[in-house]
Design brief:
The chain contains one helix and five strands; from the N terminus they run E-E-H-E-E-E. It is mainly beta. It has a single domain, classed as Roll (Ubiquitin-like (UB roll)). The model has no long low-confidence stretch (mean pLDDT 95). Pfam families: ThiS (PF02597).
Length: 66
Amino acid sequence: MELEINGERHEVAVGTTLAQLLEELNFATNGTAVAVDDSIVPKGSWADFKLAQGMKVDVFSLVAGG
């Protein structure tokens, strides 16, 4: 199925969870926030959150600065 991840189109297997997607794309999970279709998904839900065709996924890494 096709998803939009950080503005780019990606093909993933049907039934892929958010946690699996992050692992497959080598995203760090510490200090990371994820929104699906403009709604934040709590980290505790990533393993059970099944993605569907056409969803928009935005992955944000928190960065400290000064």
